Amino acid sequence: MINKILIANRGEIACRVIKTAKRLGIATVAAYSDADRDAMHVKMADEAMHIGPAPSAQSYLVIDKIIEAIKRTGADAVHPGYGFLSENRAFAERLQQEGVTFIGPPVGAIEAMGDKITSKKIAAEAGVSTVPGYMGLIADADEAVKISNDIGYPVMIKASAGGGGKGMRIAWNEAEAREGFQSSKNEAKSSFGDDRIFIEKFVDQPRHIEIQVLGDQHGNVVYLGERECSIQRRNQKVVEEAPSSFLDEGTRKAMGEQAVALAKAVGYFSAGTVEFIVNGKRNFYFLEMNTRLQVEHPVTELITGIDLVEQMIRVANGEKLAMTQADVKLNGWAMESRLYAEDPYRGFLPSIGRLARYRPPVEGHQPDGTVVRNDTGVYEGGEISMYYDPMIAKLCTWAPTRSKAIDAMANALDDFEVDGIGHNLPFLSAVMTHPRFYSGNITTAFIAEEWPRGFGGVEPEPDQTRFLTTVAVYAQLADESRKSQVSGTLANHPRKIGSQYVAGDGKFYWPVGVTFEGATVDVTFDDTASHIVTSDWKPGMSHGRFTVNGQTFGVKITKASTGWRLRWRGIDTVMQVMTPRLFELSKFMPVKQAADTSKLLLCPMPGVVTQVLVKEGDQVEAGQSLATVEAMKMENVLKAEKKAVVKSIKVQAGQSLSVDEIILEFA
């Protein structure tokens, strides 16, 4: 029986494993680096063992240091989480040699599925649908057309040595296949000096859908439904859901049975995921198998009621699965939003620093019958480090239907307060309220298609503007009341509060009339539309619940120099509320001019300068690389926006920079 588990990981997944282990009465050991000395997983575990400096290559990825921590603490099992050493064959073998239980799959399965060519070969032999293609040498255009006809259109014609989109064409018919073959061949020759071409099926309207499998060491394997992970940005999953709105029962069953067949073909046990690409006609093709627990596993747990970490521990302990395929039932719908320390207004660049405010929504069963779950590894006052993945939390919701799960997620995001760093909460809210996402009409290109120029925030619809105006007016009245008496209640106000205001967002303004009785405010617009509002919000609170005409929403609200900053449904705006006289006078206020930074290269994110690629006096061209900055395991190349001459360089390689710190100046 497993007595003590060392978690060879950090952050939210380490905390997640510790929660289940504690429930099962199993002792836990947290491994931590210098950067994680005060991390949540260290505080949660029964014991903690230091394993080295902050960079993961000197701590979490060093097998010898993990083994030393195991020996020093007497742990008899290791859960690897995901990432780091979770799919490292050498690590699993070393644990085996040391007589330590690996809470994961067998070494052979890790090795077989870790190689893309080998895994596809095994998948094909196991009867799993793979992307049709021809990998041999193609003599001429006639042969290319014949191969394309055999595969079926559309096809992707690719340069064997290709990259960056060069030597690549999509053909939808014979004429395009003939022309595309020759064009790709010519382009490949000039770009790579290698004109070899191969052809494979092009998956039209692709959706990323994966099957969760679970097996024991006695040959039993089941599938636990699917997860849709099509909402991706640069191949990074952002939103996941279970089940998929696109699959029918027949396709679900076929995908599940093929995933099980693949697992059995490699003698798989523990939790694993078989990933597929699915086209618009529900044809599905094997991508890869992840031989570990997936980041998005909570949505599967929410719709099946099965604790996957518990099952992994029980399987590693030699127990048989307590369920058969017939026992697996999918109940309701679950959504997961990945909260990242990435600034969506700055091209999703990483953000680091202290969490000045971190207030997740209340977890558990909600009054409306939905469920909120938040898997996290951070806390208010904690630091977001530059050394690791930028994930802050995984916010999940469950409801009986997809639409209600989306609504629950939108509400939970409205209630989630994060300040001190850049984060993608506004973007997640924008996805949840997007009509196309709500309809389920999504592909892996959803984000690129809907925000082709990047995310610039959400422009409020007219009814949303009125709602926010009403909230701002209520806040203004409450603030005026607070200033005039200690109690701050509207009901006992000793003097008459103004009944006429002008409210707006800096672009548009509306005259509004106000009446109130007790804590209820009636805001009337110039078209006589009335909005009755009540709230639990009081001046000084950063979040409040506002009920307007019977509908209740959570709004993040803070006092701004010129009004009230309101954040809701991806909208981030400052609403001003003024008396008519003050509004007239405000027209004479000068507009503050933004500082001219056109001759400066500023650091777009906190990070370390790894290279300065130019020197003073150099003339640079538009698009030329100037410097590289590393942050959160990503190297970012900063390029010139226009032709210029470098006047001075303010930094050197190895220097740590903050946001907007000057790197160099142009003449």
Automatic annotation (TrEMBL):
One GO MF term: metal ion binding
Keyword Transport: no
Catalytic activity: propanoyl-CoA + hydrogencarbonate + ATP = (S)-methylmalonyl-CoA + ADP + phosphate + H(+)
UniProt superkingdom: Bacteria
Cofactor(s) required, per the database record: biotin
InterPro entries, A to Z: ATP-grasp, BC-like_N, Biotin_BS, Biotin_carboxylase_complex, Biotin_carboxylation_dom, Biotin_COase_C, Biotin_lipoyl, CPAse_ATP-bd
GO biological process: lipid catabolic process
Organism: Rhizobium gallicum
Gene coding for it: pccA-2
Protein name in the entry: propionyl-CoA carboxylase
Start and end residues of each ATP-grasp domain: 120-317
